[in-house]
Amino acid sequence: MRKPVWAWVVAAAGVLVAAGMRVAGATQMFKVGVELWALPLLTGAIVLVAVSVLRWRRGRNTRAVEEAVEGVRAEAREAHRTFVGRLDHELKNPLMALRVGLGEVRDPVLAESMRVQVDRLASLVAELRKISEIDSYPVADEPVDVAEVVSEAIETVVPGDREMVVAFPRAPRPLPPVRGDRDLVFLAIYNVVSNAVKYSSPGATLEVRGMEERGHVVVDVSDTGRGIPASEVDQVWGELARSKEVRHIPGNGLGLPMVAAVLRRLGGSCELSSIQGRGTTVRMRLPLL
User: Fold this and answer.
1) Which residue, 119, 60, 66, 68, is CA-closest to 91?
2) What are phi and psi of 219, to 5 degrees?
3) What is the DSSP secondary structure assignment for residue 230, as one 8-state letter?
4) Backbone angles phi, psi at 2, to 5 degrees
5) Is the pLDDT of residue 240 over 80?
6) How confident is the model at residue 175 (pLDDT cuts 50, 70, 90)?
7) Does an H or E element contain 45, and which?
8) In degrees, to the nearest 5, what angle opens at C-alpha 74 toward C-alphas 69 and 79?
9) Burial 188-220 (b: 16+ CB within 10 A, else e)
10) Rg for the chain, CA atoms, rounded
11) What per-residue confidence (pLDDT) applies to 166?
12) pLDDT category of residue 105 using cuts at 50, 70 and 90
């Protein structure tokens, strides 16, 4: 870190004064008397001050780095939001023209195939737009019962051919509410549970477990599905990223990026672990009310 100008001025002045006194032959001695009992106290005080100053500087540097990193991330998110907005705007007219033109296609099979692809493209752009706008989404600050939201998501998306295990604590008390927006909490949990269903087969076991941990409610969603190769685990949070082993399964690779964006907006976080051929666990953390 660059020293302030005044420090260089003081140092230079000290050197000049010392050199002048030395040339002038100043040999007087300046002595400071310290009683022996006070020497350890003085030494300890000096060490304490030095350590405090070092810790303060280190903390300031750490905060500066964190702020710089967050600034870069914010700029990247803003650039992404701008790009997606332009993409959405540029595709509106071509998509509209394609939909109108479908009426002129005489082959009904071809027309239906084209309609499906046009709708898929429109849906893809809309989902990208939603993710990019999450950071500016007005969030309600309300208590949310996670167990209730999980129950609703399971009822909505889990078919009857999966073995469902749900475990939330009851003793000594149920999980406390989290702080956030119920719609966004539902969106995150729904996407994770939906992924667990999508990438597992009939007869697979799905587990949803909740716990309280260091000021957060933690929700683990696990499945006994096909899992993700270790080399691709870090890629799952990227938009449109899909494992080569599941590309035959309908999807757009936007579910987990949406979850990450929602939890970031709610002040939480998420992570994923997976064993190829055995299953996957997604862990979501939401701050307590």
Assistant:
1) 119
2) -120, 120
3) G
4) -70, 135
5) no
6) very high
7) helix 38-101
8) 125
9) bbbbbbbbbbebbeeebebbbbbeeeeebbbbb
10) 30
11) 95
12) confident
